[in-house]
Amino acid sequence: MRTLTIEKNDANQRLDKYLSKRFKTMPKSLMYKYLRTKYIKLNGKKAQPDVFLKEGDVLTLYIRDEFFEEQKSYDFLKAGKELSILYEDDNILLLDKKVGVICHQDSRYDSDTLNLRVLRYLYEKGEYDPEKEGSFTPALCNRIDRNTGGIVIAAKNAEALRVINQKIRDRELQKYYLCVVKGKPGKKHDTIKAYLSKDEETNTVSVYDAPREGAKEIITEYTVLDFSPALSLCEVLLHTGRTHQIRAHLAHTGHPLLGDEKYGDRRLNAKYQMKRQALYSYKLKFDFTTPAGSLDYLNGKEFEVNSVWFAENKQLNILSKK
Question: Fewer CB in a 10 Å sphere around the end CB: N or C, the chain?
């Protein structure tokens, strides 16, 4: 028999969800059997799988010792140490993800990703101990494509993760992008609307001027910051967040991103020897309209990266007026 006390980061979730994350090698059928037969008790009593845990709750477990075996090594220690930290406090990290870094593991990248670098950083700093955290793991709240750079938010604790995820879902964060596009848009500032559908097999999207079945509305706001005869430097604010929205929407208007091989102008890309898209999530503003709990102090704050590689590229000759 062993006991576990629920800590803050493990509270406010269903008992069965906690157990699945805490005991990864335990079959779910066995877990539910343990609950039915009171081999797992909550505060000394039989508990339903869907009961929500509270900080200070005590679990009593009469289960096999093999499920408690400690992990002797951690995969995240194989990840790199390089992190560009824009801002950090007790709850969150704001990271300036560089082009070429992937956010999460997949079949090709499983040992050196941004989320693993965050875990290594917090572990070596003494702020994350997998043995003390029953089910919570610090996590990225948003992601950016490998070939795009910019601000990524990481949550250090469960409450911060819940709050930031809610704010992203409810559009209470404003994410601004810098990009270089072909030509010069007709208006210096505009908010454009269209409809986007995604082809899952090819991982490409199509944009239409009118509604059609399967297509979702997209709203993109842009401002031309500077221009040359061939290129424009623009700031973009997304009002919807669809796959490849900026790249496909601007391409649909006749102003594709420089360096974009999927939706762009390959001749223009070759002329400027651009093999990666000129797009960067460079500014973030917290604009809460609903309570944010322990993160209320972030409301109204704005963060901006120090430099964007293509905005300072003199060879592009965009800043013609300076």
Answer: C
* Residue 158 tokens, joined: 């469960």
**pTM to 2 decimals?**
0.78
Backbone angles phi, psi at 316, to 5 degrees: -75, -20
Which residue matches tokens 């199509």? Answer: 206
Question: CA 91 to CA 164: how far, in whole Å?
Answer: 10
Residue 283: closest CA among 194, 160, 150, 154: 150
Distance CA 30, CA 39 (A): 10
Strands (E), the chain: 2-5, 40-42, 45-46, 58-61, 85-88, 92-97, 139-140, 149-155, 173-182, 189-199, 204-208, 216-227, 231-238, 279-286, 302-304
pLDDT digits (tens, 9 = 90+) for 259-293: 999 999 999 999 999 989 999 999 999 999 999 99
Beta bridge partners of 5: 58
pLDDT tens digits along 234-261: 999 999 989 999 999 999 999 999 999 9
At 49, list the tokens: 């799988």
CA–CA distance from 25 to each of 29, 64, 70, 219 (Å)? 12, 11, 12, 44
Q: Which residues pair with 44 in a beta bridge?
A: none
| Distance of alpha carbon 95 from alpha carbon 152, whole angstroms | 5
Residue-by-residue DSSP string for 240-299: S--TTHHHHHHHHTT-PBTT-TTTS-HHHHHHTT--S--EEEEEEEE--SS--GGGGGGT
CB–CB of 220/186 below 8 Å?
no
